[in-house]
Amino acid sequence: MAQLDVQQKLAILADAAKYDASCASSGSVKRTSRDGKGVGSTDQGMGICHAYAPDGRCISLLKILLTNSCIFDCHYCINRKSSNVRRARFTAAEVVRLTLSFYRRNYIEGLFLSSGIIGSSNYTMEQMVKVARSLREDHDFRGYIHLKTIPDADPELVHQAGLHADRLSINVELPTVAGLTRLAPEKSAARIEGAMGDTKTAILDTGDAKKRFKSAPRFAPAGQSTQMIVGADAATDGDIVTKASTLYDRFGLRRVYYSAFSPIPDASAVLPLQRPPLMREHRLYQSDWLMRFYDYTPADVVAAADATTGMLPLDIDPKLAWALKFRGSFPVDVNRAPREALLRVPGLGVKAVTAILAARRWRRLHLADVARLTVSVAKVRPFLIAEDWRPVALSDRADLRPVVAPKIQQLELFAA
Ligand code: SF4
Description:
By secondary structure, the chain is α/β, with parallel strands linked by helices. Helices cover 39% and strands 8% of the residues. The protein has 16 helices and 8 strands. The strands form 2 sheets. It has a 6-stranded parallel β-sheet with strand order 1-2-3-4-5-6. Strands 7-8 form a two-stranded parallel ribbon. α7 (237-251) packs across α8, α7 (237-251) runs antiparallel to α9 and α9 packs across α10. Iron/sulfur cluster binds at residues 70, 72, 74, 77, 79-80, 116-117, 184.
């Protein structure tokens, strides 16, 4: 491999990391250097830049790979060993220096570090732990660190990673075991889930210890997350949300990220030629939101999907799709219905429902009151009853879908 300078390595390894969607930094503990000690803060201060990759993903963290060389051959991955890409590798010290210099320039809020596997899983994980440990212990770095754990790494190394990182993530990659076996034959769903189970236990144990002893060490205070690739195998949206729900329940994940498969240069023949519509990824995030904050079960989301294909509609959101299928659950009386029923009304968000519940303790609500809490009263009207509104014919219309579906319009490229 020709000698590359840090700039060249950065170009290669930041580009190689863009396929990983799981870089959000929500939910960490507050750490700051405002007392004049240490470097960095997990708070987003004024002037911290947010950069976006060409595909629109937020990269406000320094998001890089330690190396894009890999001994595994996962078909969907541009860094697989049979891929014909230019390879590069940072040393642990180089990543530490880069992180600190980017942070001091206010370019980033922290570090998101992943890696291909070099030598062995344990060796690679050791190098990643070395980066995090050096940042924390040698430089008193108090910014955010997200480490992607390496498949099959020794649990003790993963534990070490959790002692320094804010968040750990382990990618399940594909929603079904069959998909994983076909597209990532060297990975094992059982081992991935075993590592998630160990991480959950460590998070809970250290959380308990922290309650009793202030000096107890923290372990991944921002929890763990995972990522699933969408559209690389035959899994339906129903399969994906069901898997996501199981992962939330079993491993207490903070987030499941969905990453629409993007055809990569020099792609393996077993992959589809086209990427799935980006809207599919968006609909899965909306479903995920419904399950986490709106009391929908995976079965509800599956029921909103097309019964023959198992796919969610792309032209309307899953909440509206569910409401159109289950018209018998509507209209909901805004002045009497319980919170769960109000949360099912398309167009009413959690904040709107909370405001409705608070306001109706004092007076009866009219449609105009609800209109002030929603972006589109036209979307809400067929599904609720207010003091001065009853949707009589509207909610029974056979052609309700085009009435409530968002209108598709071409945006002007140079509009002010
Ligand atoms: S182990 Fe990770 S980096 Fe290596 S080929 Fe598989 S997905 Fe890519």
